[in-house]
Amino acid sequence: MIDWLYTPLVEFGFMRRALVAGLALSLVAPPLGVFLTLRGMSLVGDAMAHAVLPGVAVGFLLAGFSLPAMSAGGLVAGLLVAGLAGGVSRLSGHREDSAIASFYLISLAAGVMLISLRGSSVDLTHVLFGSILAVNSTALWLIVAVSSATLVVLAAIFRILVVECLDPLFLRGQGVRGGAVHALFLGLMVLNLTAGFQTLGTLMAVGLMMLPATAARFWSSRLEGLMGLAIAIGMLSSTGGLLLSYHAGLPSGPCIILLAGAIYLVSALFGRYDSLAARWRRRVQPLLPPDAHG
Amino acid sequence: MSSILTLEALSLAQGNRLVLENIDGRFEAGSITALVGPNGAGKSTLVQGIMGMLRPIAGRVNCSVPKAHRAWLPQQLALDLSFPMSVEELVMTGCWPTHGSFRRYGPQEYRRGQAIMHRLGLQAFEHRPLGELSGGQRQRALLGRTLMQRARLLLLDEPFANVDAATVEVLIEVLRDMAADGVTILVVLHDHDQLRCLADRVLLLDRGHGTWTTPAALGELSRLGHPPHTPPPSGAAHSPTGNPA
Fold this sequence. Notes:
The complex is a heterodimer. Chain A has helices at about 1-10, 15-40, 40-65, 65-90, 95-115, 125-130, 135-165, 170-175, 180-200, 200-215, 225-250, 250-270, 275-285.
């Protein structure tokens, strides 16, 4: 058992690098996911992952399988979509999610069009589903740098994000520009999605953001608890998913996300708050007899 | 006493619709002014104009209180009740003007927070999540935040809607104490008894125009059934509480 857990992670350099990359991402992506769920933007993460994909593909077409080029492409596409969507929603007064939905679809279609004009579809499975074998030291540095920077920025804007989630008008009354904070938050999200595609794939990267966060809501009703638990669930899924992928010869991205998904399902069934089991427990609790109040 | 806030020929619009025209007024430190008027008369619009969230189309708002010490309790609560935060944490966010995004709350602030929650009768609820609060408890917690903020100008939009009688009593008492400490208070009100208990002066808004009066004079008018410019039965003083303005 110990051998099953220990050996692959220690013996092989690519597994060590993939593990460090996974743990670094698990430290920052789940807290971003917690804020996304609290802001009612759970599906915006998914839309942004689709928005990032064409940029990554364009980077791949221009420079081959080069992580810096693909990340830069993804980052540009993601920020462009977020910026345009924010601008249109501000000017038109329409809800931002409808603008994001429109722009990510445009971005996705443009990306697919570009890819069909050049290049083969075979190589693109790496981009879509990730590959632990491909995490070289350049990739690792990039991921660790992005995680560290995200952690610092998140710590700096943490209180603003909390107060803004709770009551945006209070901050507006205090003269804080909520729009700038929101843009910074979306930027962090795009940055992490692009950093995550190497191990997880562009479409899977958002899973490490959302699933630990949604699972944690069944176990804690406090913000600190949500953040800590989401990080722990993310790290567990990354490590376990990598081992599963190694031993069973399966792609790493889906392994990690399916493990996180399994944790979510177990939480929804047996979690402390609002789960099926919690509802059942509450129902069988006996009423106090009427005279107990006197 | 000095004027904290003056309105000079103020006109405000929502989109393309002119809501208020030529409103004049002076608000002294420590005064409590009730904003009264039928639904749609522009009470909430005036509050937004004073908070600087709506740019005047004519005239001006002069306010000597810095933004950090202006507080607004909006009518439709913008508060996200599913947010995992306790009453104490909400009250402590009132430290924003002094602590901003980075500074840590010290023991002094926590003691002040405790005293405020005690004053508002919230000591038993301090660790309760916001989602489990009643309307009255929520309103107390929000007023606690403005106390923490050391607000010098406080605007309240129908603060007693959906609130139990005991909370109304506590809120009125705390608001009177705040005024005695020099806080300028503007409150949108419908209920006549609450208005008499609380307000020194009344700004009656109707069809975009403002008239200054006193609680007693307003009571007299509404007793006779002829509040100025206000068609009964949806008259100023007797509009049902809790309706959106």
